[in-house]
Amino acid sequence: MQPSERPAPADRPDHPDRPDRSAADRDRGLRARAEDWLAGEIDGHDAATVRGWLQAGDTTALEQAFGARLEFGTAGIRGRLGPGPAQMNRALVVRVTAGVAARLARDAPGGLVVVGRDARHGSKTFAADAAGVLAGAGFEAMLFDRHVPTPMLAFATRYLDAAAGVQITASHNPPQDNGYKLYWSGGAQISAPLDAEISAEIDALGPARAVRREPAAVRRLTWDALVDAYTAEALAHLRFAERDLRIVTTALHGVAGRSLIELLHAAGFTDVHPVAEQQEPDPDFPTVAFPNPEEPGALDHALVLAAEVEADVILANDPDGDRIAVAVPSEGSPGGWRVLSGDEVGCILGEHLLATAEVAHPAVATTVVSSQLLGRIAEHHGAAYAETLTGFKWLAGAAVGAEARGQQMVLAYEQALGVMVGTAVLDKDGLSAALVVADLAAHLRARGGTLLDALDDLARRHGVHATGQRSVRLDPDDAPLVDAVLEGLRTHPPEDVAGVAVTALADHQARVRHTAHGAEQPLDLPSTPLAVMSLADGTRLQVRPSGTEPLLKFYAEVVEPPTPDLAASRAAAAVRLDRMLEAFLATAMGFAERP
Questions:
Q1: Cβ burial, residue 363 (10 Å; 0-12/13-18/19+)
Q2: Which of 4, 22, 171, 330 is catalytic?
Q3: Is 432 a residue of the active site?
């Protein structure tokens, strides 16, 4: 055989069987990170799982576990349970808490830190680990003696003047997930630059096994020590005396069931009917496909019970109790019940609390992806109004800013069923919000009205504001899709959507708003991956990646002017809304399909 006829060596680029060097390098990197992690692992079960992956050469599992470290997002850290820095496990909780302790020591060395948890898989162990690390770092660590709703942890952080608070929860995520929420001094969730500073401290740490833990030094915090104070704060928001209201509640297998009923009873609501099969915590959420009251089917059991007992209202919390969903009887709705949207709940309560405000300078706030109606309600009442990025860490900041200006935040909400009433809890609180809904509903019922009548009153004054949302669920490797959609809208915005001219595009990533006439205006909000289009007929269209789930979210709002025929206006708005959402989704996703 002549030299020219010899087969190409396997490592030459032109050899058909040459392994992909980049893939091989990646696999070696994954294995190295897994081996390093094993050296510092503290959980035997997780260690055995990783050794099994290494032995089997399961690169898919290794990539899922060691591809990247979970980072603080819109509402803390959330991820799938499992080994490795990209999933939720004991080693990650220990290292994250050690990073939190290192950063907190600059502000409040030896200060009080409160730790709570929900009832998900792993939550009890994770909370104990977190408290032990904080105690080992010299902080006064107090651990709730039972699972608690997230609003109670946020309340405790503020009420006890703690340096920080940690809640182990994944809120409404699927059963296989867990998470870590962090509150700083004052009781609000952390925001930039704290998240980056804590992340840097975590990166500088050694293995989890080297982190000092002192479980014996952790103090127990009882529920009874705080429940009276929390209840008193919640009851202070009530405005009416009527209590003739039949209520169905559901906790969706979460930790808020007992708390909500006790709160309602304390306010004088005794005709309360919990959904029995969803009342007690169950981390597997067996009766729902997805434990989020926004999801279709999540309220089915509550709707059945409400029909049986002829209830006046349904109040539903998500599994950690920070969200509130509301449903009311409606003859024109399927099944005779209508589930109110988050925007509807927020705006009804905004109108109610501003109309009955007992403070001199009330303020309200919502997020950029919520309805514009709250701003019009605030203007009508002469109240201050703020609009923030998505997430209650930003709404809490708006409340703190309002207080600095001599104002009092009476309500903040986001369209994803999050409501903050007052400022005793600087986060969304589905318990106190549910109580205020019941207070208003009982008052309206005593006068022959309902919450739907309150919506009608708003529509007559400000027009019909219809909001809607679509979501595209993402795979782990879909980051380029998100970038393509946002970059496409940013650089090649459409001239129209569904035949309606686009008049402006707000690029929140670049913090600039472009008009159709070529003008540019700076945006005051922090940079975030969000694109907002304004249309000639008042429609607003938005798209952003979720900060808590693998979703690309599309939002739309259309407005029909005030008219005596509300039914016709609502029908017209619904048709426009659906048409706009479909056209917007098609336009945006078209950028992801282009070469």
A1: buried
A2: 171
A3: no
